[in-house]
Amino acid sequence: MAEVEVHREAALQRADDFENPGLPPHRKRQTDLHPEKEKRAERVVFGWFLLSALGSIIAVAAYVAVPITPGDLTTTRFNNLFLGLGIALAMLAIGIGAVHWSKQLMSDEEHVELRHSTKGSEKTRAKAVEVFTLGDKESGFTRRSLIRNSLIGALAFAPLPAVVLFRDLAPADQVPTDVFAHTMWEAGTRLCLDPTGTPIRASDVSYGSAFHVMPEGIDEAEHPLDEKALAAVLVMRLPADQLNEAPDRAGWSYDGIVAYSKICTHVGCPVALYEQQTHHLLCPCHQSTFDVKNHCKVIFGPANRPLPQLPIAVDSEGYLIAQRDFTEPIGPSYFERLHDVDEDEHILVAGTTEDRA
Ligand code: FES
C-alpha cells in the first residue's frame, strides 16, 4: 500500500513533456498598415463577388439560350456544360471573395477562448426544468390527452401528401417498379457502342477493355434518354478460365464476353470504372465493387445485390446481340423487394404475375 502511494506521489510531481510555446508575436497585415492596400483588397473582393453574379447570369442565360431538345444529346450536353460552367463560376467566385475578405479585411485580432464545461449550472438547469414544467402546465400537453394524441396522429398523417405527390411522379399507368423491370433489350437486339451507335463484333472486344453499350436503335426511341438510363450496359472479355459461370447462366456469355447492367444496384449511379487486372467494376458514387469473374457479385460497398446480367450471343454476321431482356429489374435494390423473378422467369408484381418472356 505504501509503495503505491510513493508511485502516485511521483506521478503528481512529474514535469510536462512539452511546454506550451504560446502564440507567435502578432504581425500586422499589409492591409492593416497601408490604407491604399486595404482599398485595393476591398476592390478585389468586390471584383470576385461581381464575377460571381456574372456566373449566375451566364448560367440562367445559357439555360434559356441553349434549350434541351428531347432526344438530341448534343443540345443536352451543351445545356449542361454552359449551365455547369456558369454555376461553377458563381460558386467559386463567391468562395474566393469570401476567403479574401476574411483574410485581408476582417478583424485580425487573436483571441484565446478557454474551454469551459458545457453543462449548465445547477441554477440554470433548475430554471430550464421550471420553464418546461410551466410550458407543459400552460399548454396542457400532458393533462389533455385527447388533444395530445390527436396532435400526434395529425403529425403522423402530415407526410402523406408528400408520399402521394412523389408517387405521382411515376407514369400513371404503371407502378414504379415496372419502369425498371423492362428495358429496350430484346432477343436479337445488337449491342452498339455508346455514343456512336456502332454495332460491336465479338472479335472487337479484346481482353482488358470495357465497352459502354446501348441497344441498337435507341436514339429512335420515343424517349431515348429515359431508355438509355435503363438499358446502359458494360461489356468486357475475360479469359475463359477466369470466368466462373453458374450452371443456371450457362450460355449467357460468348467466348468470355459478358454484359452487365451499368446501373449500380445501390442507388443507381453509372458503374463506370473497370479494373482490368482484377476484373472488378467500381461505382464511383459510394465505392461499391462488383466482381465480374463471379456474376458481378458485390465484394465491397453498400450495394446489396449483383449487377443484373444481360444474356448475349452473336448473330450470323458475328455481331454481339442480346438473347433477351434482363431477367430482373435493373437499378437500386429497393425495387427488388417489390419485384421478384421466379424460376419460370415470370415477374411477380405486387401480387400479380406477368410473363416477361
Ligand atoms: S450508387 Fe453505386 S455505390 Fe452507391
Automatic annotation (TrEMBL):
Keywords associated with the record: 2Fe-2S, Cell membrane, Disulfide bond, Electron transport, Iron, Iron-sulfur, Membrane, Metal-binding, Oxidoreductase, Respiratory chain, Transmembrane, Transmembrane helix, Transport
Region described as Disordered: spans on this chain: 15-36
Chief place of localization: membrane
Locations listed in the record: Cell membrane
InterPro entries, sorted: QcrA_N (IPR045603), Rieske_2Fe-2S (IPR017941), Rieske_2Fe-2S_sf (IPR036922), Rieske_Fe-S_prot (IPR014349)
Transmembrane keyword on record: yes
Ranges of residues in domain Rieske: 230-321
PROSITE patterns, per database record: RIESKE
Classification via Gene3D superfamilies: Rieske [2Fe-2S] iron-sulphur domain
Family per similarity comment: Belongs to the Rieske iron-sulfur protein family.
Task of the protein: Iron-sulfur subunit of the cytochrome bc1 complex, an essential component of the respiratory electron transport chain required for ATP synthesis. The bc1 complex catalyzes the oxidation of menaquinol and the reduction of cytochrome c in the respiratory chain. The bc1 complex operates through a Q-cycle mechanism that couples electron transfer to generation of the proton gradient that drives ATP synthesis.
Protein name: Cytochrome bc1 complex Rieske iron-sulfur subunit
